[in-house]
Amino acid sequence: MSVSAPGAAPASHPDPVTLDRRDGPYGEIVLRRRGERLEIIANGCFLMDTSDGRSERLLIDAALAALPREWSEERPGERRRPDVLIGGLGVGFSLAHAAADPRWGRIMVVERERAVIDWHRDGPLRRISGEALADPRVVILHTDLVAYLRTTTDRYDALCLDIDNGPEWTVTEDNGNLYSPDGLAACRARLNPGGVLAVWSANPSPAFAEALGNAGFSGVRAEEIQVARGVPDVVHLAVRTA
């Protein structure tokens, strides 16, 4: 996500034009156009836009780089490719970047907002994700991420999660369950041994890093990417040991 304060909009840009507005089980969600960029607003909170995408791509690249070396190197045909779960479709940067990399195997995307899925399949965001959605490796699942992690028996080699502005700035209150001890245990259970959990955040969170260690993950660290204003975006990384 590219984030700002609740209700804030990027400075020095034209007034926004609302393209779609829907009321759903998690509140109001809006797609706006501001000049050349598209923005997603949830319950009045500016979540993300199409202006950059570097940190969303880092989410995918950092997870792949943290996997065992034989998976991150380009050795087609020597072994199965790692499977990745992307939590949150957003504006599509993470999905498009994963689908552009032949080293990934199955690419599962979990998105709870039907409107966001529609904007990608038939709406303005298709320009970012259209090619990825046509990739046979890609599956879009319309469900809540926390519920999915707690009920599925599927396992992945990487979980790349971007459903909030960070562990300490959730879009809805119940999303906080993902970062709780039970939520992190569910993440760990869905990873194969050696698998990587990568979590996007708008701010560094030492408390979340500590929680990852307490949940039994190893190799806990954070990668930062500088943004135009404010503190850097962060990808928190952790590994499930055997």
Q: Could you please describe the fold and organization of this structure?
A:
This protein has about 240 residues and is α/β, with parallel strands linked by helices. The protein is about 25% helix and about 30% strand. It has helices at about 55-65, 70, 95-100, 115-120, 125-135, 145-150, 180-190, 205-215, and strands at about 15-25, 25-35, 35-40, 45-50, 85, 105-110, 140, 155-160, 190-200, 220-225, 235-240. The protein has a seven-stranded mixed β-sheet, with helices on both faces. A four-stranded antiparallel β-sheet has the order 1-2-3-4, with no helix packed on it. It is globular, with a radius of gyration of 17 Å.
Question: In a few lines, what is going on in this structure?
Answer:
The protein is α/β, with parallel strands linked by helices and 242 residues long. It contains 8 helices and 11 strands. It has a 7-stranded mixed sheet with strand order 7-6-5-8-9-11-10, sandwiched between helices.
